[in-house]
Specification:
The chain is mainly alpha-helical. It is 73% helix and 2% strand. Its cofactor is Zn(2+).
């Protein structure tokens, strides 16, 4: 079996373990750096098994410096992260213990990785120019390739997180490019990245649907709170009960052309309409049941004075609960509507920084590729 096939098989096994046995990662976190050291050792052995210890040590070093770039960037922004965990033939990752407040902050954290990755192989350039040892060209080539790949504009790669400041629509074009590469060179690693990128792009597209549904629920909650204030002033609750009962018993209607399933993104309009109808029914039903309980509840008066009824604790509790839900909805709406918004000046800075890093990495990649042709026999 060729080395490339062995690597692909090991990658597939590693991806399966990550997906199905997440307890392995939890076990590795028994100490602050235990997971990092153990996973680093496993990755080092796996790379050494196929490519030798010298190259394995270089790969681990390049990946480690890349991840430390993310950690340093997170520290600068005051965001706590987990220790790095290495995955053989996949790379390494760190987990953020809190979400960035906006896409600009997330882009800063993402940029730290490939920037540190660039710095990681610069010593190898100097060592090659000094010793003319072909091994250092392999290090430069590998470092440039790893970080260029991470700059692809696909989420969850670093490049996708960086360009999200510009527009998340760029993810789609990145997926097209990666899809073409997958057709040209089928590889489990590329397929895994393509799959993750597809889910990220899909999820981002559904955020607009989520935002519209939340905005409608926000409107219904405000109407519900305003309505509760009018109940004590009603001379009769009959008309209100008839209105709420009719709304609560309204037909739900088909969510997507009579189908129980729907085509994501294409059926969003019908899904939104169905969600709005469900919100109408839910709040009408809750209001109807509350009204029935409230009208039969005994009224309390201050000092027995019929002109001074005590405000209903039942209505007060319902108002408090609705207000809490309204706060949650408004907070999520604010996050969805502002997370990816940035001023034009920020977008220009991010674009220039992204392109500059991509160009520099590309130049080093070409530099190493040309020299590897000269030393082809030695590198083999």
């Amino acid at each position: 079996m060729s080395k490339s096939r062995v690597r692909s098989a090991l990658l597939a096994v590693g991806a399966f373990i990550v997906a199905k046995f997440k307890w392995v990662l939890a076990f590795l976190k028994f100490s602050k750096f235990g997971g990092t050291l153990i996973s680093m050792g496993i990755s080092l052995w796996a790379y050494a098994f196929l490519y030798g210890w010298k190259f394995a040590a270089a790969v681990i070093y390049l990946i480690f410096v890349h991840e430390m770039g993310h950690v340093i960037a997170a520290r600068i922004k005051g965001i706590k992260t987990s220790p790095a965990v290495f995955l053989p033939f996949v790379g390494a990752f760190i987990a953020m213990k809190e979400q960035p407040r906006d896409a600009k902050t997330e882009a800063f954290l993402a940029y730290g990785g490939p920037l540190a990755g660039l710095l990681s192989f610069l010593p190898a350039v100097a060592l090659y120019e000094w010793t003319k040892e072909p091994f250092w060209i392999v290090v430069v080539f590998t470092g440039a390739l790893i970080n260029l790949f991470n700059l692809l504009p696909i989420s969850p790669l670093d490049g996708g997180r960086i360009v999200s400041v510009l527009s998340t629509r760029i993810w789609f074009f990145g997926l097209l490019g990666l899809g073409a590469l997958l057709v040209y060179s089928p590889d489990p690693m590329i397929f895994l990245i393509f799959l993750l990128g597809l889910f990220s792009w899909w999820g981002r597209g559904k955020e607009a649907t989520r935002q519209e549904i939340l905005a409608y629920e926000q409107k219904k909650l405000r109407e519900f709170l305003d309505d509760l204030e009018t109940w004590p002033t009603l001379s009769t609750t009959y008309e209100k009960k008839v209105q709420l009962q009719a709304a609560a018993q309204a037909s739900p209607g088909p969510a997507a052309g009579g189908r129980r399933w729907s085509i994501p993104l294409l059926d969003d309009g019908r899904k939104i309409a169905a969600a709005k109808a469900e919100i109408d029914r839910r709040y009408a039903n809750a209001a109807y049941e509350l009204l029935l309980k409230w009208e039969w509840a005994p009224v309390q008066y201050e000092d027995g004075d019929l002109d001074r009824p005590v405000p209903s604790t039942m209505l007060a509790e319902a108002s408090r609960s609705a207000a809490e839900r309204l706060t949650q909805v408004e907070e999520e709406l604010a996050r969805l509507s502002t997370y990816y918004k940035s001023p034009a000046s920020t977008k220009w800075k991010v674009l220039i920084a992204y392109l500059a890093l991509a160009v520099v990495l590309s130049l080093f990649f070409l530099y190493a590729n040309d020299l590897s042709e000269i030393h082809r026999s030695s590198i083999r």
